[in-house]
Design goal:
heterodimer; A: alpha+beta; 62% helix; 23% strand; B: mainly alpha; 3 strands
């Protein structure tokens, strides 16, 4: 099993990004129910492993962070999900 | 619940929480339906205003839709900011309608240069195809049917060149945009479909 996705916050991030083409930082904060600092750390870890792509830009003079999943991230999530289903089926 | 089930539950709950909200799309349909019908009625009621200058009609049909385009783009950007995410479905719809907007500009530009070229039939045909695609993508039958109706209508237009294009606009847009838009706006289950 992929240790990176075993963390619930990182799994929530990837699950959200697999379903959307793009997610904002604040939305991910709401979905993961985590603090700003913790979310930043988890996003950084996923980015370092090239699971996600992070884009930072300015909108109305405010910094805005958007995240999207990479091809590697999609493959890793699919593998993780398949393993979960296999484990569940095998009891 | 063991760890595996907990992980599956996390994935399920996150995916369920990011469903597509189709209400903004219906607002776009209703807005354009009303705008084009109002413009057509105005043009139909006051034809003398559009015969006073060489390009007055063309300018009327270019400037107001351009303002409408800016307003709808601004509205859609605000909706995207509020929701905080963009589904693949809304991205596809955005691209399709973006292509339509570019095609519309191209057809209008062509009608400025070619005097014999009337922009209404190709725009209505293109619009009907885009409506059908949108209806099929979001799996909402009234929109698909509205698009099919508009396609048949524009096909019929080719064999009746003497028909009043303003009346064509009113009937075509009413059935192709306004009715499907209102139908989507008031559809059940909070206008949400799988993203």
């Amino acid at each position: 099993m992929d240790k990176l996705l075993f963390n619930p916050i990182r799994l929530k991030i990837i699950s959200s990004l697999i379903n959307n083409s793009e997610c904002d930082f604040n939305y991910l904060k709401k979905i993961t129910e985590s603090t700003q600092g913790n979310l930043s750390i988890q996003l950084k870890k996923l980015k370092e492993e090239k699971y996600i792509h992070i884009e930072k830009r300015f909108s109305n003079n405010y910094p805005k962070t958007s995240c999207s999943i990479t091809e590697k991230g999609k493959i890793k999530f699919e593998e993780f999900f398949t393993n979960l289903i296999t484990l569940k089926d095998n009891g | 619940m063991n760890s595996t089930e907990q992980q599956i539950e996390i994935i399920n709950s996150v995916i369920k929480s990011t469903k597509e909200n189709l209400k903004p799309l219906s607002v776009n349909f209703i807005f354009w339906g009303f705008l084009i019908i109002a413009m057509s009625l105005f043009n139909y009621a006051f034809p003398s205003l559009f015969q006073s200058a060489q390009y007055s009609g063309l300018l009327f049909w270019t400037v107001l839709p351009l303002i409408g385009m800016i307003l709808t783009v601004y509205y859609n950007i605000n909706i995207r900011k509020k929701t905080g995410y963009e589904t693949y479905l809304s991205r596809v719809i955005k691209i399709i309608w973006g292509v339509f907007n570019l095609s519309w500009i191209y057809i209008i530009a062509l009608s400025f240069t070619l005097k014999s070229f009337h922009p209404v039939p190709p725009i209505l045909f293109l619009l009907s195809i885009i409506i059908i695609i949108t209806g099929l993508i979001i799996k909402f039958k009234p929109i698909t049917i509205g698009g099919v109706f508009l396609t048949i209508f524009t096909f019929y237009l080719n064999f009746n060149p003497g028909i009043n294009l303003l009346l064509v606009n009113i009937v075509g847009v009413f059935l192709g945009l306004l009715v499907p838009g209102l139908s989507l706006f008031y559809s059940k289950s909070d206008n949400k479909s799988d993203g």
